[in-house]
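Suppose a colleague, Dr. K., hands you the sequence of a protein chain of 161 amino acids and asks what its three-dimensional shape might be. Before reaching for any lab equipment, you can write down a predicted structure in token form. Begin with the sequence itself:
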Amino acid sequence: MRLAFFGIIGAGSFVPAGGAAATPGDTMRLELARLDGSAFVRLGDFAGKVMVLNFWRSDCPPCVAEMPVLSEFSQANTDIPVIGIATEEASRARRFVERQRISTLQLSAPAQSQGLLRRYGNAIGSLPYTVVLDAQHRICLSKVGAVDTQWLKTALGRCSG
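The predicted structure, expressed as tokens, is then:
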């Protein structure tokens, strides 16, 4: 599998959803295993909530750099689900999460990562990739490249109303 990693491209920019993105029905049917293997999580479990989905790999420097930002944002905004989706082998991602003490909910999607990235509007499969879903679980905004706190706050402001 070939992935492109970008740290600067798209920095600070918003990419409105469009094209072959998921429909609300598609999004609500998504089900992935927790990274720790303890259970499956459905996005439908978060009905009516604005959400942040972040696709990442442990060997992607911008992915690693943004992890503390996502964790801190999640801790400060407990009403907004922030969900990481690891696009690599679960055991490798799990070791990384444990070593880095990442506090956000982490799911595993190594086998279907390219399909999920396309489904959520990232046709080229670049990482990191962050998607903000509105309360109806439609893609509201997305970004290729590392996010920062200001981008997350602005995105949630645009997607919450």
